[in-house]
Design brief:
The chain is built from four helices and no strands. By secondary structure, it is mainly alpha-helical.
Length: 84
């Protein structure tokens, strides 16, 4: 594995796991009043764009990171809409 790939995978892991505490807290408490609906909607669309980009360019760290991040962001967005 090339050093740049290691950097890519490390960045992917760190940015993806950063959503775990927020998603876990929201699932547990169903409290979403302190997060922005607009921000999470735009963020989710952006992550979907990066996922598509990663698939087209066959860049595995981008695909993995954005696929998992989209799942977490979608859960948070769903809870935000459901539990207003």
């Amino acid at each position: 594995m090339e050093p740049i790939e290691i950097v890519g995978y490390a960045a992917a892991v760190l940015t993806t796991i950063s959503f775990v505490p927020q998603a876990a807290k929201i699932i547990k408490t169903k409290d979403t009043k302190s997060i922005s609906l607009g921000m999470y909607a735009l963020f989710s669309i952006g992550v979907l764009g990066w996922l598509i980009y990663g698939i087209i360019t066959r860049t595995l760290p981008v695909v993995l990171a954005n696929g998992v991040t989209l799942c977490f962001a979608s859960v948070i967005l769903t809870y935000k809409i459901k539990y207003k």
